[in-house]
């Protein structure tokens, strides 16, 4: 039996780990795994051709982290029609039931957790916060929007259209900049926002590499100790950065777990046609998200960096 | 100062077919044409001679629409004209062989000869599908080259870039001679040609004139010039110095004028 | 004075009876030489051979590769690149380059979709407007290149960013769902329909691509306009002097390229079902189409190459990507090998040309 | 027989006393004309003027723009693009293009990092090895271009993908963290150190960029090798016939470009603190450097332009990006406006050149 | 078949300085050189004449390293040589003006003249920083052009692309004459030149010979050829038909030979 793993890219450590998890489980269960990825984040077309290749190749099932959650639906349907089990990983499809099952982090919640933590940590100062938002890309893919808007909601900023970032009117927001989710982008975006307003004291970042870049920019102007950085991912380098105080708090997700459970589901499906059932009360299997911080805040559940390091994936 | 042609015994009453007055063309610091005048009479072969860099090519480029003069005016058959492009001038029947030949190296001889005036197939294919009539174009091209004696060309579909320098020049001359209807301009057409091929070009020039079409011939070859020209426009330092008839002056005189060794009488008195 | 005239050219008496013989040369006509000569005369043959070789190799490596379904899938996967490649070929033949092809395609598809769904314009009209918009974007490129005389690379680098940003801003990053389109404006998905002879699905889009390639091949080879495109790319100054309206031809080429891109945008809707402003064609379409063009043997310096070569170029890339996927290569290794392929394909081409010269 | 020889050229008697006068022309020397002429003679002046204008406009629009910190931030943001631009300029001057610059930079930085941390090689040696590796990658490009005679676009399109894929495969996408580097191999971060005259921070990287630009400007203008680079780009056949070893020059140019890219990779470590294989320079470095080169007035057809122009080109882009962001435009609009800028800057340049011709 | 030079009265005992035997060069289907022989004697001016496309340029390109012949061998001063590039040939003292001139259009006159053999500043600047000695190069270039009488060039730092066709040719000729140490080859050096400028080139050719350097001159200008050449190599259909001395034959004969109107006696008997 063979299975396919289709990720958004294979350059982001998150997906690298996801692939490792899938590969390990697949070898264990004697399944042949073929992996595909887009060239850039948001590369929808490559994912469509990957699905087509899986169908042509007679795979039993597909694990996919969709780049365009609405647009991929037709291709997913074609695969299901051809008798493949399709499982959405990390990113739910739109509508969710377009896939046979979904194993995902709740990205809005991931954002909300760091937003709540930041608000609780700042206390009264939250009313005069100067917020920098370091987002992913100007095409605003869904994770980008969900985390950003979740963070703002958690922090208590009134959202405009929750389907997009950048339309909020709260004066505490200094600006949004895009980072491509890497150190280089995080650094440049932070430098730019600092030039715009040197009093920034809270930085939201789409992921931990962007956070590391932002930290370098802050360090360069000697503000690394009085600015709060929050992020999402919970990769091992990110958790270590939490331990070292680079990042204040991060929402940890569990890609290895997602992938492994996805492979198990395909193996089961190949054996007797059973399909996985969603988490109770949700329309997807929530693989969980936990806040990692060494400065726990009241009213926000969290684990410390030592525990985070045990669970981390990079 | 109005430069007058001298020695114009015949045709003095006739109106020039192509006339220019006060042409100026500057390239940055260099003034290639400096208030230059020009007259081409109907049916004549007019040679233009002058030192290297005197501005001969610039003059004929201005006359054929390849460059736009900064000042001055041009009239064709008495009507003022402004050529915005070589195609424009061609539309008025002025055909030109430039010193740089103006060929597309990767295209075939036939393609080059018909560039901008391709023949289309008769009937629906041509009218509706705008299909080229290649056999007709190739036949025509072959004929014209044969007339020029360029038989060392082995294949009419050869790319122009594979031809020798002289072969290329032959193709360009054949093109102009075949299509010029009012004026044919040749900028050093025999510069790269052999003895045999040069002779053919001179014959061709006479042929064209015998069809009633006047020719402007730029050449550094005095024997050729004196052999075929009806009148000789001598160009010096960006302007027309004088116009002579080959019967009235010797080659030595012409060379002396154009190099500044002597000053023609009329100009001397006028100055 | 005519005395010295006569003497001056008197040596031409020697011409009397000059031979008109054409040089004849003996050539060795070995089979190899003849093959090389044929390859040289048929520039699109080289990519074709690479293609056939690739198909055979992958057929041997992967048992599933040699099925009709796989091959029809490859065709449908290259439909968009093939059409963008037509646009790119036109521009490259004029010694230009068009970095905006993908952006024009995506924006045109978004316009078609939004016109229908945001403003309620009937789909066929919305499509026509989308095609017109694509043509206009191409025209703008052409105008800047031909009139303002800016380098094509820089013009289309600029318009690429402008169009892509306009695309995101105008669409507010909203995807129009496939089910909505199928229900309300099926005309948008026209090229996604298929015929199924013997159970093998062939998209209308594939036929469209083949038809466009054929038409363009005809136009470039057999019409005056086509010859002018080559002449402009070969030596624009010479073309101008020879009587080609180079600026007009350039503008037409870019506008036509824009139209082709808009058609590709329409095909994208059919192929992907939905309309998505963040389709990666916007980012990658230029490089993909240029890859097809260059593997197909069209010179980036203009004036040389054929559209059929581009088609084979697109096919080669498609076969390689599919083949490597089916063999199960890791994506990064796929990129690595495609990179090698690009260089190798052109090197082989060069080698054959040199050997036969 | 010498009788006809004499007669044949007898008309040359007319040459006796030929004038040696040089044509003299009266020119109107208005101030405007003189300015235009100066601009024409000083090609890098045009981007400089655009630059100054941009700085003034943004200074008026945004109160924070005109601060030393902002300006030093801009300089440090363009350091990498500026160094990549040096590499790109060299290649573009030979009528080539290098799409692999960003990939070489990123891979070189990864190699320096991994050599140190994976194999425990001392940092200075690891840096030297990284620089050598970058040079080798450039050499491979040059070899393919000069020896196999493949078009530079296609070669570097291929090596771009190959190097980037190799980079991901080799590094397993692992980032080396800034704190680890600072603790164990600070030499890697050398160019990230700064001096702070009057509290304004200036990175060593900025000085390096300026020094590299100056050296290259000297080499191109005042050494035989520099002239050969121009000649090769201008007309390679003519250069070869005139006695330039075109192939050797090409290989040297690409190899040197590779070295510059590797230097940029080293600078990246200093600037970003960490070593990341997925730095966006790998994807975007080529377009960014080409933009700088072209805005700076270097012709993509080779042989014309100056490295100082490239430097101003990089600065213009840097000033625009920063300026637009400070004025508070939305990132999508910034993208849009940068696209416009690219076209406008080159159009202004073209216009001035034309007016002065 | 070994083609023999005929009418070689003098120098028959002397060994040729530059010799070629059985050169073959094919371009695809076209055979430009068909087992061609060639001899250049020390200190002579050897003219090469022939129809357009006869293969003259191909011959001198083979001799100067610009193309590699498919077959045949070349000896210089009795030693077999293979020139891999023009630079290689130049290293052996062979300097060539190609029909296409081989100039970099965007570079200045001085840059072009010194391309590949630039002068460096004396002292540290030159040795360590490899700085060019521009003033020296410009001075030299100006002198050489003045010798040729190309005074219409207004600025030695002008880009070559802004020169007229004839001016460009003058620069190329000046370059070759200034640097050739063993052999100077000129492929139609006066094709685009005016009367005055052509005369200077002929004088220059004599000058060079008087420095003991032999010259190969390709030209279609019979009077020039017969005026300056010591021997004339007649090229026909890709090979050497015969070699004549200008004193033994008339121009008419030469023209008749090269165009195939007559067959030289020796060849006729040999065939
Ligand atoms: N494009 C150009 N840019 C700058 N200067 C130019 C340009 N074209 C011509 N010139 C200059 O204009 C002057 C006249 O050139 P033109 O080509 O008209 O001379 P010509 O009489 O045809 O010479 P020749 O007999 O050598 O062909 C020359 O000094 C030349 O350098
Ligand atoms: N690069 C090339 N590719 C193909 N054919 C060529 C090439 N160069 C020359 N030829 C062919 O070789 C033959 C000889 O050309 P060559 O240039 O040597 O002639 P030539 O005697 O110098 O003529 P001309 O007097 O016109 O300069 C011609 O038929 C020409 O078409
Ligand atoms: O959801 C994933 C991961 O969380 C990663 O951090 C970045 O890419 C997103 O698409
Ligand atoms: Mg001229
Ligand atoms: Mg020749």
Automatic annotation (TrEMBL), chains B, E:
Keywords assigned: ATP-binding, Nucleotide-binding
Residues in ABC transporter domain copies: 18-262
Keyword presence, Aminoacyl-tRNA synthetase: no
PANTHER family named among the record's database cross-references: CARBOHYDRATE TRANSPORT ATP-BINDING PROTEIN MG119-RELATED (PTHR43790), SUGAR ABC TRANSPORTER ATP-BINDING PROTEIN (PTHR43790:SF8)
Gene3D superfamilies, A to Z: P-loop containing nucleotide triphosphate hydrolases
GO molecular function: ATP binding; ATP hydrolysis activity
Keyword ATP-binding found: yes
Record protein name field: Mannose ABC transporter ATP-binding protein /fructose ABC transporter ATP-binding protein /ribose ABC transporter ATP-binding protein
InterPro entries linked: AAA+_ATPase, ABC_carbohydrate_import_ATPase, ABC_transporter-like_ATP-bd, P-loop_NTPase
Annotated coiled-coil segments of the chain: none
Pfam families: ABC_tran (PF00005)
UniProtKB/TrEMBL annotation, chains C, D:
Assigned keywords, A-Z: Cell membrane, Membrane, Transmembrane, Transmembrane helix
InterPro entries registered for this protein in UniProt: ABC_transp_permease
Topology with respect to the bilayer: Multi-pass membrane protein
Subcellular location: Cell membrane
Pfam families registered for this protein in UniProt: BPD_transp_2
Transmembrane segments: 45-66, 78-107, 119-140, 152-170, 202-220, 249-269, 281-301, 333-352
Main location: membrane
GO-annotated molecular function: transmembrane transporter activity
This protein's GO CC annotations: plasma membrane
Name this polypeptide is given: ABC transporter permease
């Amino acid at each position: 039996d063979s299975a396919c793993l289709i990720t958004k890219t294979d350059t982001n450590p998150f997906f690298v780990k996801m692939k490792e998890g899938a590969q390990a489980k697949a070898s264990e269960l004697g399944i042949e795994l073929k992996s595909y990825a887009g060239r850039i984040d948001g590369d929808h077309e490559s994912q469509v051709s990957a699905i087509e290749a899986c169908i042509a190749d007679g795979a039993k099932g597909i694990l996919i982290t969709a780049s365009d959650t609405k647009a991929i639906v037709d291709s997913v349907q074609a695969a299901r029609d051809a008798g493949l089990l399709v499982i959405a990983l990390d990113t739910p499809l739109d509508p969710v039931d377009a896939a046979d099952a979904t194993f995902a982090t709740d990205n809005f919640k991931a954002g909300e957790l760091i937003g709540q933590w930041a608000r609780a940590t700042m206390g009264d100062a939250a009313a005069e916060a100067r917020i920098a938002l370091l987002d992913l890309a100007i095409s605003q893919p869904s994770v980008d929007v969900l985390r950003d808007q979740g963070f703002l909601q958690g922090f208590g900023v009134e959202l405009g259209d929750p389907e997009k970032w950048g339309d909020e009117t709260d004066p505490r927001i200094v600006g949004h900049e895009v980072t491509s989710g890497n150190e280089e982008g995080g650094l440049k975006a932070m430098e730019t926002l600092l030039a715009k307003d040197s009093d920034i004291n809270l930085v939201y970042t789409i992921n931990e590499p962007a956070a590391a870049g932002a930290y370098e920019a802050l360090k360069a102007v000697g503000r690394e100790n009085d600015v709060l950085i929050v992020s999402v991912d919970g990769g091992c380098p990110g958790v270590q950065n939490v331990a070292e105080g680079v990042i204040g708090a991060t929402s940890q997700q569990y890609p290895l777990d997602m992938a492994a459970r996805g492979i198990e589901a395909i193996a089961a499906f190949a054996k007797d046609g059973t399909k996985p059932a969603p988490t109770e009360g949700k329309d997807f299997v929530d693989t969980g998200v936990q806040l990692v911080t060494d400065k726990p805040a009241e009213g926000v559940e969290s684990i410390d960096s030592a525990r985070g390091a045990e669970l981390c994936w990079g | 100062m109005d430069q007058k042609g001298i020695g114009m015994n015949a045709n003095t009453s006739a109106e020039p077919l192509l006339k220019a007055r006060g042409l100026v063309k500057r390239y940055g610091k260099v003034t290639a044409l400096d208030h230059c005048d020009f007259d081409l009479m109907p049916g004549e072969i007019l040679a233009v001679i002058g030192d290297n860099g005197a501005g001969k090519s610039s003059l004929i480029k201005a006359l054929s629409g390849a460059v736009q003069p900064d000042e001055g005016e041009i009239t064709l058959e008495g009507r003022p004209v402004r050529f915005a492009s070589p195609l424009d001038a061609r539309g008025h029947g002025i055909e030109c062989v430039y010193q740089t030949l103006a060929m597309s190296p990767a295209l075939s001889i036939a393609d080059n000869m018909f560039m901008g005036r391709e023949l289309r197939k008769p009937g629906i294919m041509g009218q509706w599908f705008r299909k080229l009539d290649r056999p007709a174009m190739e036949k025509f091209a072959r004929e014209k080259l044969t007339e020029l004696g360029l038989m060392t060309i082995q294949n009419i579909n050869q790319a122009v870039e594979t031809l020798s320098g002289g072969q290329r020049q032959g193709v360009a001359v054949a093109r102009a001679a075949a299509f010029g209807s009012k004026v044919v301009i040749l900028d050093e057409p025999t510069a790269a040609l052999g003895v045999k091929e040069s002779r053919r070009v001179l014959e061709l020039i006479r042929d064209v004139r015998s069809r009633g079409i006047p020719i402007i011939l730029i050449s550094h070859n005095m024997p050729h010039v004196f052999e075929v020209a009806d009148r000789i426009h001598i160009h010096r330092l960006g302007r027309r110095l004088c116009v002579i008839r080959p019967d009235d002056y010797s080659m030595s005189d012409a060379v002396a004028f154009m190099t500044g060794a002597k000053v023609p009488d009329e100009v001397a008195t006028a100055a | 004075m005519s005395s010295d005239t006569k003497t001056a050219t008197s040596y031409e008496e020697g011409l009397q009876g000059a031979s008109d013989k054409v040089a004849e040369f003996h050539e060795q006509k070995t089979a190899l030489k003849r093959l090389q000569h044929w390859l040289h005369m048929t520039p699109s043959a080289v990519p074709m051979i690479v293609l056939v070789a690739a198909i055979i190799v992958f057929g041997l490596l992967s048992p599933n590769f040699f099925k009709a379904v796989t091959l029809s899938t490859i065709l449908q996967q290259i439909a968009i690149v093939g059409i963008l490649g037509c646009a790119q070929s036109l521009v490259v033949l004029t010694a230009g380059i068009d970095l905006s092809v993908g952006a024009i395609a995506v924006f045109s598809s978004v316009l078609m979709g939004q016109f229908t769904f945001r403003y309620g314009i009937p789909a066929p009209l919305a499509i026509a407007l989308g095609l017109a918009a694509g043509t206009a974007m191409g025209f703008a490129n052409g105008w800047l290149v031909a009139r303002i005389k800016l380098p094509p690379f820089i013009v289309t680098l600029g318009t690429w960013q402008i169009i892509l940003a306009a695309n995101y801003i105008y669409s507010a990053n909203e995807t129009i769902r496939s089910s909505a389109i199928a229900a309300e404006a099926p005309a948008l998905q026209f090229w996604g329909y298929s015929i199924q002879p013997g159970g093998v699905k062939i998209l209308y889009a594939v036929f469209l691509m083949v038809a466009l390639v054929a038409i363009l091949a005809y136009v470039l080879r057999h019409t005056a306009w086509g010859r002018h495109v080559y002449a402009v790319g070969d030596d624009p100054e010479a073309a101008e002097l020879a009587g080609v309206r180079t600026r007009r031809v350039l503008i037409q080429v870019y506008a036509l390229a824009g139209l082709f891109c808009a058609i590709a945008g329409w095909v994208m809707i059919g192929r992907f079902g939905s309309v998505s402003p963040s389709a990666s064609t916007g980012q990658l379409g230029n490089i993909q189409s240029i890859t097809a063009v260059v593997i197909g043997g069209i010179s980036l310096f203009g004036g040389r190459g054929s559209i059929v070569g581009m088609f084979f170029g697109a096919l080669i890339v498609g076969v390689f990507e599919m083949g490597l996927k089916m063999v199960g290569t890791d994506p990064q290794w796929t990129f690595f090998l495609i990179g090698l392929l690009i260089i190798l394909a052109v090197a082989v081409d060069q080698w054959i040309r040199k050997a036969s010269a």
